[in-house]
Design brief:
By secondary structure, the chain is an all-alpha fold. It has 4 helices and no strands. It has a single domain, classed as Non-ribosomal Peptide Synthetase Peptidyl Carrier Protein, Chain A.
């Protein structure tokens, strides 16, 4: 995966690249706390204007699919419902 921090907009990711990025957020092994925080902050910026932001990862709604694919599907649903561009391949 290319460096996800080098992509300032969600629309610069393919769905597969973003899924890989979301999955990597669950495994911060080998990262410093600062590096992990930068990646989580970047996720929050990418998914704006979704009202739940990082809560999708760390405090999901009861019954929500909080797997990486579930998080990506929710972001995609939210963006498409508002006519916003999501991933560059969809």
């Amino acid at each position: 995966m290319s460096d996800p921090l080098s992509k300032p907009r969600l629309s610069e990711f393919t769905r597969a690249e973003f899924l890989e990025f979301v999955a990597s957020l669950a495994n911060a092994e080998g990262l410093t706390e600062e590096e992990d925080d930068r990646r989580v902050d970047h996720f929050a910026r990418l998914v704006e204007p979704h009202p739940h932001g990082t809560d999708l990862l760390f405090w999901p709604e009861p019954g929500a699919d909080d797997s990486p694919s579930g998080v990506v599907a929710e972001i995609e649903r939210f963006f498409h419902a508002r006519g916003l561009r999501c991933f560059r391949d969809g």
